[in-house]
Amino acid sequence: THEIIRRALGGDAGACSDIVALNAAAALEVAGQVADLGEGLVFARELMSSGAATAVLERYAESSRQSGEQG
Q1: 8 with 16: CB under 8 angstroms?
Q2: DSSP string covering 25-45, please?
Q3: Rounded to whole angstroms, what are the CA distances from 38 to 8, 28, 42?
Q4: Over the range 39-58, which residues count as b (16 or more CB within 10 Å of their CB) and which as e?
Q5: 28: closest CA among 20, 36, 17?
Q6: Cα within 13 Å of Cα(47), Cβ side
Q7: What tens digit of pLDDT does each residue of 32-62 get?
Q8: What is the C-alpha separation between 3 and 61, in angstroms, rounded?
Q9: DSSP per residue over the chain, as a string?
């Protein structure tokens, strides 16, 4: 499952990537970061294909590891 998430965030074509992009687009629209779902979808796919989404996942994973070591 970790590899599926990594591939989806990396923008690999397929249903998992589509679901991630659509969920991100909806979150961006609700947060007021984009004007509509279509703009959010374009933005989400750009972030995914640029590697930015994977970088966020890596930072989150590292933070979680550090929290676990401290607790």
Answers
A1: yes
A2: HHHHHHTTSSSSHHHHHHHHH
A3: 19, 11, 6
A4: ebbebbbebbeeeebbeeee
A5: 36
A6: 19
A7: 999 999 999 999 999 999 999 999 989 998 9
A8: 13
A9: -HHHHHHHHTT-SSHHHHHHHHHHHHHHHHTTSSSSHHHHHHHHHHHHHHTHHHHHHHHHHHHHHHHHHH-
For the record, the structure tokens of 36 come out as 């509509």
Q: Give pTM, 2 decimals.
A: 0.79
For residue 60, give both structure tokens.
């989150």
Map tokens 């992009």 to a residue. Answer: 21
